[in-house]
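User: Hi! Is it possible to get a structure for several chains at once, not just one? Here's what I have:
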Amino acid sequence: MSDTTLRTRLGLDRIQTRHFVLAVRIAAGSAIAIFALSTPGFTSPLSINALLNAISFIGCVAVGMTFITMTGNIMSLCLGATVSASALIFLASLSLGIIPAFLAAILFGVVITGLQGAIVGYFRANPILVSIAGLSLLIGGAAFATGGQRIYPGGEGLQVFKGRLFGIPVEAIYFFATVIVGQLILSWTRIGREMTMVGSNPRAANAAGIDTASAITVAYLLAGACSAVSGVLLAARYGSGDMELGTGYDYTAIAAVLVGGTAIQGGSGSVFRTFIGVTVIAIIEVVLLLRGFSQQLQYLITGVIVLVVIMLHTIGERR
Amino acid sequence: MTAVLTHLLKPSLRPFTVLAGAVIVLALIDRGTGYFFSLGTVFSVMQLFATFGLVALGLGLSILVREFDLSVAGIVGLAGCIAVMTGVENPWLGALFGVAAGVASGTLQGLIMTRLGLSSVGVTLGGLLTLQGITYVLTENKTIGYPNVAVSLELNAPIAHLLSVRSAVVLAVFAATALVMHYTHLGRDVIATGSDRRASRIAGLNTDRVVVGVFAMSGASAALAGVLLSYSLGAASPIALADVLAPAAAAAIVGGVSVVGGRGTAMGIAAGVLTLCILRSGLSAIGVEPYVHDLVTGGILFAIAILDAPDLARRITAWRLDRQERRARASAGQP
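Assistant: Yes, the chains can be modeled jointly so their relative placement is included. Here is the combined structure:
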């Protein structure tokens, strides 16, 4: 929008900018690593487990958000509510067995978010407004269905989604799987490439014969599936659920996407970057906790760091 | 009939049509029992209006210049806490500090965006998290009580059974904004910046200054909302106010602010906020379960999102042509 980007302010040319950005990233990365490793107790199994748990729930939502951001649709304010609602679906349908319950939750997330994606994709409706509408309907629908009560599991088998496997929290394994599958879809499938193209230039993508509407719909659909995975993991972890379960996850997820370096205007980014973003935020939080900062200072420092990182990422961008 | 309807659904009139529609539908459901058409309902609608109105106004102004100020949610909380903590002796001073914090945060974010050429969603998301952090630090993560009860009572004191001092202040701010937007070059500059920023800049308008100004105004407006709310509740807490963003954005867009920028008025935003408030208070006044309000609001938002979508007409035409063609082919196939 403005021609005065930080790049021109610093008087750097394109290649210098690339080197500068790389230098900043390496410096920031090593600063975080030194900061973390020099913190007593950071490498203890307890804190590593806490870290893995912290990134798993929010990480799945952030991977989903990446797809939406990549297609140029900024963010969805509805993913947090989708997490909660699919957790409720999962818990309520547990009486059918663990696998049907899991599938029901995923299907629910896919349908609810996919419908919003279809409206955004086919009619080019405003994504933020559509997500607020979805949020309203989900909250209303859930209150109607549950009467505002907590939902408790209707069956057995929750331990599939919690506990440990080979010493690693199971939640983290599901999260890593989500990251890998997400990255594979984004960079190795045709629809994934199409999503990236739609995000970088919707008009050109359309002219090139890409069905932009279905690419956007699929991006939302995947976001719904990822949010539902997070919902299932949360439901298993807490053993019960209500609509508060995923509150605020939308904002944390988009913060992780941006800290990872995916461009807010779409077309440039990856699931792996989001993974880095989630991890960086979680490491900062764990380190601040271990170093004895109060909860309030943790919020403040994390907020400032997110702001600074988002600003740094855009140095190399041309607008 | 259709001509009248098309006219009423024109973007400039639609917020008022939707508002009238909501009132009529609620009146029909109410059918003269008098719960909906009571002074009490009007008063409670206006109290809700005072809570969300200024946040929607601030956010709406930022959407008007084609940006999106997520930080309003953080400013509401921060300004409320600052006012409650500094305004025990002199509430005016507390309000001044609260609003000043809003102006400062809006200006700073506006400067970061325009000077470094960054997008508003990223910067204001960072701003939102930072502002929330500051609020947590200031309040030490506790609810802060406001011992000056006289101020709380004063703000909620009814005027002519319809308004409170608080809602009257909010209405006055809306009226002032509408006058400025309509009659001064400032309003014209904002609309121009939102419609086509590059063309406005070429025409000699300092669009960066307009954007910074809009964000300062957005911060001030959200801050005033937070100050008034915290004073009237007699308390401020860092988390209680986090859920204002979605209703505010919904109200601004129901109020006819176009998400592609350059279209929208202060009075339209007021109508949008009123519509959502009337739905909430009105539905509960006639004894409907609270979830109905969420469902109805969601339905209206979906309808507006689809009606406003640029590709709606193209899709409908394409489907219609497709069907006609298929029908023609089918009838040609018959002997």
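The longest strand of chain A covers residues 164-165. Residues 212-238 of chain A form the longest helix (27 residues).

User: Great, thank you!
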